[in-house]
Write a structure and sequence with these properties.
The protein has helices spanning 6-18, 60-72, 74-95, 149-215, 221-256, 260-267, 292-313, 358-424, 430-464, 468-476, and strands spanning 100-111, 130-143, 318-329, 341-350. The protein has 477 residues and is an alpha+beta fold.
Length: 477
Amino acid sequence: MRPLSPRLLSLALAAPLAACVAGPAPEIATPTPELPSDFFYSPDAASQTTLASLLPSEDPAFAALSQAAVERAPSLGEALARVDAARAGARRAGAERLPNVGVDGNVTGNRINPAQFGADNPFAQAIDTEQLSYAANLTASWDADLFGRLRAQERAAIARIDSASASASAVRLALLAEIAGSVTDWRVLEARRQAIESDVEAATQLASLARTREDAGIAPGFDRVRAEAAASASRSRLAALESERVRIVGRLITLTGLSGSDVSAALALGGPELSPQTAPAALPSELLANRPDVVAAAAELAASDADLAAAARARFPRLSLSAVIGLLAFNAGDFFSEDSVVGTLTAGIAAPLLDFGRIEAEIDGAAANKRVAFQAYRGAVFQALGDAEAAYGLIAASDEEAALAVQERDELQRAANLANDRYRAGLASFLEVLEARRAADASGERAAAALGRAERARILLWQALGGERAGERAAES
């Protein structure tokens, strides 16, 4: 048997040496974070309230604005466009594993100087100095992907579709929660307005009574002045609500992409009174893994793992196949003759030998990115756990506050009415009536604000538990 030539021997040694260009990909542990089996702040287990009822779904303003946001909100449109971009990237990564077929054609003219063959060459004069060639080719090339580099890149691209889709769901979840919160704030303003208008009416009646008593000479004018000042203070509080209304309308314009008139028309629709629902029974904390931001973080972790695999596989040789078949003729009439058929078939192998640390640096960078993605995933999981715990606890605290605020409002209102009756009967001073009226006036606003905070706590819980996705999984369980 003939010995291998030095050239063939060096080529044979290149492939095994290529595997030694960089060390193997590092093993990076990514254990699933352990969550407690139950939430620390858990409501009454007998509660049958559904997760969907935590949103103000019965409010026509929320129904109209949320539907408009889903259809035209800029933030959601941007997130959906990112999903389309991720899908295009996955299609491109999948296409890289398939052959690349092309076609080309050309007409080439050449002029040759016979003197380049030597002035004394007897055949130089017989050479045709001008040539015109016609060619058409069908080309094909394919990377065999023996070691799975392209497959790993495709897996990473597919995982990023899942990440972009989950991120879009997270944007939708946050969008609906923001709209629900803004509509609730609007209803709180309405309740505060009604309470203040009632205060203005009561203060006006008190001032009228003080004027009557002043005119009759049985009360000093100072009582009327104080009563009118109390009415003016209530009117001032009523006017201050307009700035809060403007901020809510502006926020909803940003969220929904609607005009100010459209937002105002939706908010003008009558809504139910503030009446917080009971919190749903605590769901298993494992369902937090279905929250969109957690799903997105998990998908990014899977994509970074595939990127690391692709970087590691760059250490190995690449086998490529290419072929060309076409027609070549120097006369247009001979273009389709049998003799004009030409073809080429090539198989090539390429491998890194001495890259001075380039591939190793790529592997180290991909490994670092995977560690980053894992910590981001852990952060998303514990962010979800913290949000849910806080939301459950906030519901309990806000419910107690709202109950006490309503009780205070009712008691102070009864006290104000009693003081007024005693004043009319001459059994109480005007100062006692005025102080009771001031206390009752402030309690109505406080009760409305407390009820609004209880409603908002439920919206936070809906968002913390993943919204519709968590509700669907809980129903399946």
